[in-house]
Design goal:
Elements lengths: L2 E7 L2 H17 L4 E7 L2 H4 L16 H8 L5 E5 L11 E6 L7 E5 L13 E3 L3 H10 L4 E3 L5 H9 L5 E5 H6 L8 E4 L14 E6 L3 H8 L4 H17 L7 E8 L2 E8 L8 E8 L6 H11 L2 H11 L5 H4 L1
Parallel strand pairs: 1-2, 1-3, 6-7, 6-8
Antiparallel strand pairs: 3-10, 4-10, 5-8, 5-9, 11-12, 12-13
Helix pairs in contact: 8-9
């Protein structure tokens, strides 16, 4: 094998991630030439609707998977948080890169922190997870949809369309976009629990090519793979779709793994929140155990109701 083709989205962040993986592979396998197959995904095309109304984050991965299944790429690099918990036949999610900073970050041109926002301030996010946690903490805020690529979102903030916006720290940091924003507050993981897979890259490959598997596994980080698999097990077990506000985060601290989860309505009400820890060598199933615990508390019924009420005001004019 002398050439590897990687499928990637064409957003600035996706390209940063793909080139990062390309450089790592070429350093480890100098005899292999790596090319990028750049795809404009449907999730990048439809910018006037929340993701939940166009089919969810799977729209960021489907076209890349189609390219692999059609033989036009052997590997895809995904933001793991965008990858559904199911994988199409013929493909495998085999490796996860070392997780970076998972925090969400508060950005504003006027206010120094989330706590400083006045009553009724307008905060931009289209994430139901962020919306739920923001409104559970500050029910007085007005949360407004925020779509577009990172630069578009920052421009809308600068124009004054929002008093503040909430984004993932890692993408802004990778693209060096924080320096021009007057007020930046990194939110703690206790204040804003991340989504499944945040700040890690998922490496998906075609099934049956052992050389491609070897290359992918050279990118893998064992602790990150463990934590993200725990998160993905939890999400799969409760059957959470993109219309359900769900936060889910596992972290390794020494020999212990701690999983934090939160489910509720996007208006910040009807919250179920849990925390579970286990020794690292006995932690593999805690995602499933957490799901069972929350299901016993009524999580499935809550999720069903949450999906019914999510975007109920927006849907008539958006569809």
């Amino acid at each position: 094998m002398d050439k590897l083709v990687i499928a990637t989205r064409v957003s600035d962040l996706a390209l940063w991630q793909a080139y990062h993986v390309k450089e790592r592979i070429e350093k480890s396998f100098p005899d292999i030439t790596v090319e990028l197959n750049k795809i404009v995904s449907n999730g990048d095309k439809v910018l006037d609707k929340p993701l939940a109304l166009i089919g969810g984050k799977g729209h960021f991965t489907k076209e890349l998977e189609d390219q692999m299944l059609e033989g036009n790429a052997q590997m895809a690099v995904h933001s793991l948080k965008d990858v559904p918990t199911y994988t199409p036949d013929g493909l495998e999610l085999v490796a996860v890169t070392k997780r970076q900073d998972q925090s969400d970050v508060f950005l504003s041109h006027t206010y120094t922190s989330l706590d400083e926002l006045p009553q009724g301030a307008v905060v931009g996010t289209t994430s139901l997870r962020r919306r739920m946690q923001l409104l559970s903490r500050r029910p007085d805020l007005k949360v407004k949809d925020l779509r577009g690529n990172v630069n578009t979102r920052l421009r809308k903030l600068k124009e004054g369309q929002y008093d503040a916006i909430i984004l993932a720290f890692i993408g802004l940091n990778r693209l060096d976009l924080l320096k021009d924003i007057p007020h930046v507050e990194k939110l703690s993981l206790d204040m804003m629990i991340p989504p499944m897979g945040q700040a890690a890259l998922g490496i998906e490959i075609i099934t049956g090519n052992e050389k491609v598997r070897e290359i992918a596994m050279s990118l893998n980080d064992a602790d990150t793979l463990l934590c993200t698999q725990i998160e993905r097990d939890f999400i799969a077990a409760i059957g959470a779709g993109c219309s359900a506000p769900v936060a889910c985060n596992a972290v390794v601290d020494g020999d212990e793994v701690t999983l934090r989860t939160m489910i509720g309505f996007s208006d910040g009400t009807n919250i179920i929140q849990e925390k579970m820890s286990a020794q690292k060598d006995a932690s593999r199933n805690i995602g499933k155990e957490m799901a069972k615990k929350m299901i016993e508390q009524g999580a499935l019924e809550l999720l069903k109701k949450a999906e019914e009420v999510a975007f109920k005001e927006e849907m008539p004019q958006r569809l």
